[in-house]
User: What shape does this take?
Amino acid sequence: MMSTSWKNTAIAPDSSIRDALLLLDKEALRIALVVDTTDTLLGVLTDGDIRRGLLRNCTLQSTVSEVMNPSPLTAEYGTPRRELVKLMTRKKLLSIPLIKAGKVVGLETLQTAEDAVLYDNPVFLMAGGFGSRLKPLTDACPKPMLKVGDKPILEIALNSFIRAGFHNFYISLHYMPEQIQAYFGDGSRWNVSITYIYEQEPLGTGGALGLLPDSVPDLPLILMNGDLLTTIDFEQLLQFHNKQQADATMCVRDYEYQIPFGVINGEGNKVTGMVEKPIQRLFVNAGIYVVSPAVRKQVKANQRIDMPTLLEQNIGNDKNVLMFPIHEYWLDIGRMDDYQRAQIDVINLGLH
Assistant: This one.
């Protein structure tokens, strides 16, 4: 269908990446058209362009002109739709700007309700933790079952994957497993399949991979801590992993902190430079991973291992381990103030 309101996707080149993200989220077309005041197309911007920009040390305050694709594929206005669909399918595009006399006049898109894809890839949710930092709330309730809004944390995570097209779930259990299993059952209430993995002893963030049954589909598996709230696009995460032919993909978050002192650079006793209260920018682990079947099968039954250790082993063996920067909302509900913040965020983000 052609977007009759293509200007809803238009953004100025000097707008910030943060502004672009708000636009992408509002329009749900996964593309923004970067245009000047005369509607001349300067470039296009997708979620992937933003993630690549973050890896190049751009920030959410950087301008869209720094990360946009300045040479997008376009089509002349009036091109038959069947030709446009064929072109988008061949080039693996979801949309294509339409140009007339050098100006943008429309946006053709493949996005329809019928295009929804179901993914057979297994999703493994880690729900066996004790939640010690949330005592006394977790004295009689496992942390994933604590309610945020009117739903347990784990149900909100489950629904996020279901909306993205996933239906094949595994949940690891250890602390108070009966409550989780009694609530979620076999998943039929959500029209999905849920299989439970019991850890007799805590096996770390990656150890439960070794307990998965042989019937798990031989496809990349998404693993996520069951106490996370996030609006990450799981479809794009999986597509990134597959397109890059990764052995493993780790989701990372941009983290900044300011050193509260002037930092001095020197050679011997000679001062060569000074930076006043510099800001350090790092990528930190977000607790969401995609692993290939080969990496998953490296974990033996009842082996205790954390996911960072598993990935480090594969990096040491020259495997293709990649990082996927997330700019979306992310919250690890580890402490009481996180839990209280989640009660507000879940309503504002429409996750409830």
Remarks:
- The chain has a mean pLDDT of 88.
- Residues 238 and 290 are 7 Å apart (CA to CA).
- The chain has ten helices and 20 strands.
